[in-house]
Structure formats: C-alpha cells, structure tokens
Amino acid sequence: MASLSPLLSNFPPEDVAQLSIFGEARHYVAGEVIIEENEANKYLYLVLKGSVEVTKKGDHGPRLIAEIPQTGSIGEMSIFDPGPSSATVKALTDVEVWRATQENLERMHEVRPKVAYRLVTRICEVLAKRLRQLNQKYVDMV
C-alpha cells in the first residue's frame, strides 16, 4: 500500500501493514457514488486501484473539480470535521479503496501512536497543499 499512496510515502513497510487492521477495503463499480455532496461522510479513503472524479454542484449541473487517480486520497476533511461533504465523489472506473473513520484513527493512536501521528501529519500536509492551490486559483480569478 505504501507505494500506492502519497499519504503513505514515508511509512516503513511494517507501519503500512498495520494500517489494514485499522480500516477496511471496499470495492466500487464504475459510476457508483462513493461520497455525496452535502451528505454525511465519516471516511478517509485511499484509492488503491482505479480512479474517481470529484464534482461540485453548480448552477448548470455538476462541475468537475478534480480527477483522483490510483494513489490518491479523498475524504480527508471528514477525519477532522464530521460535517457534510463538500463535494460528490464518483468512481470513474472500478475502484478499490482502503477506508478509515476518525474512530479507527483514534484506536490506531491508542495502539500505534507513532503510526497515527505520521498519518494525521500527512493528511494535514495534503489539506494544506490543496488550500494553497485553491488560494492561488482564487487570486488568479480576482
């Protein structure tokens, strides 16, 4: 799993192996909605196989925000904020994911605190990078 996700890029193999204990694998078929905008989502997802699209509702239908390939992650905000999802995520192809809840990460923190810390730190890095990109897009539009 480490070579498949930037979130896990600096994880030792033994730590990556531990992650499967604290989450679950899921399969989605092409076209299936994984996360629905404005609905509750409690999962962080790592895309292990396939790709997904992220869309946001607009005045003239859904607007494509991003395509997340194999190795990407989605749902990171749900680990910190259990509010409604900010976008819809749909499988573009058949997709295999590993997913975990905030409760899974809390349990990981109790059992493997260094692994949990490393994962949460990487999630924060991903969110910070996306915020910087969004800030730049905003500045470019103004």
From TrEMBL:
Signal peptide: none annotated. SMART domains: cNMP. It comes from the Bacteria. One of its GO terms (cellular component) is cytosol. One of its GO terms (molecular function) is DNA-binding transcription factor activity. Residues 7-108 form the Cyclic nucleotide-binding domain. This is Cyclic nucleotide-binding protein. It comes from Roseimicrobium gellanilyticum.
